[in-house]
Amino acid sequence: MSSHATEKRQLGTADGPMDVIVSTPLGDVRGGVVVVQEAFGLTGHIQRVCEALADAGYIAVAPALFHRCDDQVFGYSDYDKLGPVIMTMTRESIQMDVDTAFAELDRLNISATQTAIMGFCFGGTVTLETAARCELGAAVTFYGGGLGEGRFGLAPGIESAARLKTPWLGLYGDLDEHIPIDEVEQVRVAAASSPVDTEVIRFADADHGFHCDERPSFHAETSSVAWARTLEFLEEHLS
User: Fold this and answer.
1) What is the mean pLDDT of residues 68-78?
2) Which of 26, 45, 125, 131 could make an S-S bridge to 166, C-beta 3.0–4.6 Å?
């Protein structure tokens, strides 16, 4: 029997209505997590992440960051269609949508210290930037790129890591050709210089997208270990 309820609803933004996935625990609520999508939109994978968080006791809200565009969900090889949409992303639009999701958790009586942000791929990049911008309970990045060079109008991840205001966990695969290992190590050092608790974990056998069970790069063992550590990190930091 399911221990969560999941629904799709819309939240208002200055740029119009935004679709969100909301998964809610059926039992006690331990906190809330904003889940930031991969570059491919609110896929089934992102919904399952929200549901897994709800099963662990967290209200999960995943905003559709492509709500200003006609196409919002893409296949994992639809780069020709995806490219122009990704190029519309700006720091301002990303912050607006993430903050709208935070506001929904606040409306649901989740305080900032009980709130986390988690993101995958593109969303992992957004998560690191947000953790440097906001004071939250925790943040978890799964293979977010743009560490050495900023993307989407965001600062380079190495710079954001040095300015962290939120405890942050970074999870990366050594086989990821999109994120060089030396940049991961630079972000580890930069994060350690920030005033909050940080941890970076590298997985030797993992490629980009290792947690996404819809992608060829899915790596079940790494995914399981990374998710277990993620839940531990949330439990350690969300009060």
Assistant:
1) 93
2) 131
Q: Which residue has the tokens 């277990």?
A: 228
Beta bridge partners of residue 120, listed in sequence order: 142
Helix (H, G, I), strand (E, B) or coil at 21: strand
d(CA 238, CA 113): 6
Correct CATH for 4-237 of 3.40.50.720, 3.40.50.1820, 3.40.190.10, 3.40.30.10: 3.40.50.1820
17: β partners: 12
- The per-residue pLDDT for range 91-140, each reduced to its tens digit, is 999 999 999 999 999 999 999 999 999 999 999 999 999 999 999 999 99
Cα distance between residue 201 and residue 229, in whole Å: 10
Tell me which residue of 164, 171, 166 sits closest to 121, measured CA to CA: 171
**Nearest to 119, CA basis, from 18, 30, 50:** 50
Q: Is the pTM of this model over 0.90?
A: yes
> φ, ψ for residue 171 (rounded to 5)?
-120, 120
Of 158, 170, 188, the residue nearest 127 (C-alpha): 170
Helix boundaries (H) for the chain: 44-55, 79-86, 91-107, 122-133, 157-162, 181-192, 220-237
Helix (H) or strand (E) holding 61: strand 58-63
Residues 58-71: what's their mean pLDDT? 96
- Residues involved in catalysis: 121, 176, 208
